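Quick one, tokens below. Sequence please?
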């Protein structure tokens, strides 16, 4: 039986949701991840220190492992101001500010509709070295959904980077060759998160043989050649600008599987096993640890975790659903068999 011991991973882009959902999402996340960066697109969104600190307490109230550490990003709204940004820089739990183009994805109604009106805030963020975390898609309905990330890079991100050359930027959940090439061409303070589902799947999984809402996410899954480019980026020894952000996004069953299913893949419980399977298939297992456990911490200037996690090449079946008395979330690959699994926390080794 093949085993792999790695530094306990972090998830630098996750949707834990709120209230009753936390009873499911937090325990699942902390089984694998030492730290997470929880997204701020709640209802209402996280726009103040008070909101962030209250949300942090709600998360920690249901956490089992007291070492589990949630971090946060503020939601970039039209009401963002210099005072809030300076407070955010001083808060140890806030790692950046999340930019959602208005209408780009779930709960993005409070997002920015004209980035050119935000230059004062962006200048302050550059001064503070406070990272801008970007959902990189244009929202113009005349632009094909498969081209929206590439168009965003050309028309929004590239001009933004040229105007604010020292601003730290994380291009979130990248899905295209254009995104990989752009990030690789940029200085060290420009990086990207990549999800497990964009690495493991392409648009054939979503569309071939019938529409599969469980594979529907935003940015949408792209063609095979884009998937291959993402794999090459993280399975290269020169992968330091890329790190794991699962974008795990649970939706209640009747909203995900409906005539207009919600965008998002619930992957917290399968992320590491699926990555181990994928890296193993490409003979790249030695590179898994840096992608999941090192690169993101270095970018955010945080210490590397000291705890370790063991992956075992042993089959297991993904549960059909995760439920509480009030909720039911279906994970991606529900009912499927994966060939790797994480060792339970109590059996970990410090080897």
């Amino acid at each position: 039986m093949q085993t792999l011991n790695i530094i306990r991973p972090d998830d630098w882009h996750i949707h834990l949701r709120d209230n009753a959902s936390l009873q499911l999402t937090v325990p699942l996340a902390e089984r694998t991840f030492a730290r997470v960066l929880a997204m701020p697109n709640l209802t209402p969104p996280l726009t103040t220190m008070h909101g962030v600190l209250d949300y942090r307490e709600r998360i920690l109230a249901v956490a089992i492992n007291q070492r589990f550490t949630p971090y946060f990003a503020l939601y970039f709204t039209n009401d963002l101001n210099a005072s809030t940004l300076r407070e955010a820089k001083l808060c140890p739990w806030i790692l950046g500010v999340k930019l959602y183009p208005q209408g780009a994805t779930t709960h993005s109604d409070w997002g920015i509709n004209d980035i050119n009106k935000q230059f004062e805030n962006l200048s302050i963020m550059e001064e503070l070295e406070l990272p801008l975390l970007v959902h990189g898609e244009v929202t113009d309905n005349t632009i094909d959904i498969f081209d929206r990330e590439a168009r965003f890079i050309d028309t929004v991100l590239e001009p933004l980077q040229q105007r604010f050359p020292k601003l730290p930027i994380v291009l979130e959940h990248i899905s295209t060759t254009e995104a990989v090439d752009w990030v690789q061409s940029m200085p060290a303070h420009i990086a990207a998160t990549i999800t497990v589902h964009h690495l493991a799947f392409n648009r054939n999984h979503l569309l071939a043989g019938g529409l599969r809402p469980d594979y529907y996410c935003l940015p949408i899954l792209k063609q095979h050649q884009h998937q291959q480019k993402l794999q090459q980026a993280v399975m290269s020894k020169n992968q330091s600008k890329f790190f794991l952000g699962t974008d795990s996004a649970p939706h209640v069953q009747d909203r995900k599987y409906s005539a207009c299913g919600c965008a998002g893949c619930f992957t917290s419980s399968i992320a590491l096993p699926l990555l181990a399977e994928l890296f193993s298939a490409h003979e790249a297992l030695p590179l898994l640890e840096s992608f999941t456990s090192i690169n993101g911490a270095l970018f955010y200037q945080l210490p590397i975790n000291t705890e370790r996690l063991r992956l075992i090449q042993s089959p297991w079946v993904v549960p059909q659903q995760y439920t509480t008395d009030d909720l039911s979330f279906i994970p991606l690959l529900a009912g499927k068999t994966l060939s790797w699994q994480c060792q339970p926390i109590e059996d970990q080794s410090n080897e």
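Residues 148-163 form the longest helix (16 residues). The chain has twelve helices and 15 strands.
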